[in-house]
Amino acid sequence: MDDPNTAQVFEARYLRDVLGNFPTGVVAVTTMVTDDEPAGMVVGSFTSVSLDPPLVSFLVDRSSTTLPKILDADRFCANALASDQEWLCRQMSKRGTDRFTGVTWQQSEYRNPILDGVVAWVDCTIEKTVELGDHFLVVGRIQDLTVASVKRPLLFFRGGYGDYTSTAQLLLDSHLGR
Questions:
Q1: Quick count: other Cβ atoms within 10 Å of Cβ 176?
Q2: Total domains present in the chain
Q3: Do the Cβ atoms of 74 and 126 come closer than 8 Å?
Q4: Residue 100, Cα to own-chain centre: how many angstroms?
Q5: Can you tell me the distance from the alpha carbon of 87 to that of 47, in angstroms, rounded to the nearest whole number?
Q6: Contact (Cβ atoms closer than 8 angstroms) between residue 38 and residue 113
Q7: 3-state DSSP helix/strand/coil percent for the chain, to nearest 5?
Q8: Which residues lie closer than 8 Å to 140 by C-beta, 6 or more apart?
């Protein structure tokens, strides 16, 4: 039996290939740098942490140039992208460009950008940041949240983007003649 205190070493490409079989939601994390300068990035690691207190989290690579802006603002909005927003995901993922060009959004009560057309959004203040390996875990305390549309979510799976339709929804739609 292997020593549980000895870390197994994996080749990075193999690790990515295997972990790519776990589908993830695509979330744009946004904040305001100044009163008129939004900042944002895309993460595939947004998750619920706790109901009491209401906490969520996401992971971000330590080399991120957007994370310091989010940490300085001490707040963020997690926008669950819809299946028709792959273009927005790609735009918000580009380095060295204005990620908000052509993007419509509204400002939340906590002054974070809420992107138009998303499935849902969660507005947060930063509760804690933890360094873990080559990433930072950012934990946010929920201040406000809502379901914004009934669109299907954008998912990332095996290196590509797609959407999700539940089998229950398909059955319901077939009985309702949709």
A1: 7
A2: 1
A3: yes
A4: 16
A5: 23
A6: yes
A7: 20, 45, 40
A8: 55, 56, 57, 75, 76, 78, 122, 124, 125, 126, 127
CATH of the domain at 151: 2.30.110.10
SS3 28: strand
Measured at the CA of 19, the angle between CA 16 and CA 20, to 5 degrees, comes to 80
Task: Using only the alpha carbons of the chain, give its radius of gyration.
Answer: 18
Which amino acid appears at position 67 of this protein? L
Task: Provide the phi-psi class of 111: left if phi over 0, else alpha when psi is between -120 and 50, else beta.
Answer: left
pTM above 0.90, yes or no: no
**Token pair for residue 136?**
């930072």
* pLDDT tens track for 26-76: 999 999 998 789 999 999 999 999 999 999 999 999 999 999 999 999 999
Domain of 30, in residue numbers: 12-176
Q: β-pairing, 24-25 with 113-115?
A: unpaired
Residue 1 covered by a domain: no
Within a domain: residue 161? yes
DSSP-derived secondary structure letter, 8: P
